[in-house]
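Exercise 7.
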Amino acid sequence: MASVATGASLLSGTAAAADDTLPARVRRTLDQALAAGAPSAVCGVIQGGRTYVAGAAGKGKRKPDGRTVFQLGSIGKTLTATALARAVTAGETRLDAPLTLPARFPIPRKGARRITLADLATHTSGLPRLPEGMLDGANPYDPYAHYTLDDLAEGLGKTTLVTEPGEKYAYSNLGFGLLGQALAFDRVDEMLRHRVAAPLGLTDTTTTLRPDMLLRKAVGHAGGVPVPDWHDSVLSGAGSSIYSTANDMLRYLAAQLRPERSPLRDAIELTQRPHFDAGKGLRLGLAWHLLPLPSGRTMTLHDGGTGGFTTCVAFCRDSGAAVVLMVNTFSQGPDGKPYPIGSLTEGLLNDLDAAR
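Solution. The predicted structure, written as tokens, is:
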């Protein structure tokens, strides 16, 4: 993969002339993100094995680039799923293994079948979106920060499954938080660094900001006002407190497009394989959502968000195209309408796929 550029095409000469629409496409996407209310935005793409990234900002705001740090949000679930896939391909566990936690954490039941690791990774566990009582007394600007393992143990004892495991897709942050704890109890962040981020060279994908990352970090916003980052020491497998950059996400997407070039080849292939059909064209890999593009090819994607950031990544292996879009604002505007980050990402990927 070519090295990441910032605001300029990596191509030159006649090759650049043949691909001169790429910067314009990215620029349009950035303009639309700013028009929707984002203080700043960064967009990166992979097309034909080459990489391009550019940033934009509103008046008086700092323009981000590929090294600017954003909170990643639920895209982090795909890292947790990759850690699960690594454990499965190494023979350390199985996808159909039941969820197991220390004895003081009761596992909710409904029906005869127990929750499996695959259920957690495909959002088919029947668990609610958030833990029982988690938001009671929580700081609305940092809702996970107060939550402890003791709270989790107490909440699980009061949790009722909405459906029987394996029956229905229902997105669950709690489910992925439990998956992280099942894989590496109370050491989830360390596991994600060592088992996924480090092997893939994702040096800025972490829950702990280094001093140099602090200097490069965008300030999150909600309703046009700066807000604190989210912090989470219990359910971080759901991606609730992880940071990253567009450059790191492009490296990650390059590994998704060409797993055979990655040290995590078998695990990545397993995460992308369909494991559950949710109907209406939606299939679930491990964390990844698989949807058809207008071309008939498959788009694989995940979005994310925290109290001050919204992100999305999408790729199509058949056309060799990938997109990451990151903005430093909450996913919902002051008018209650969602920011169109997901639709902008999907639209740009469709353009790149159509240009194949």
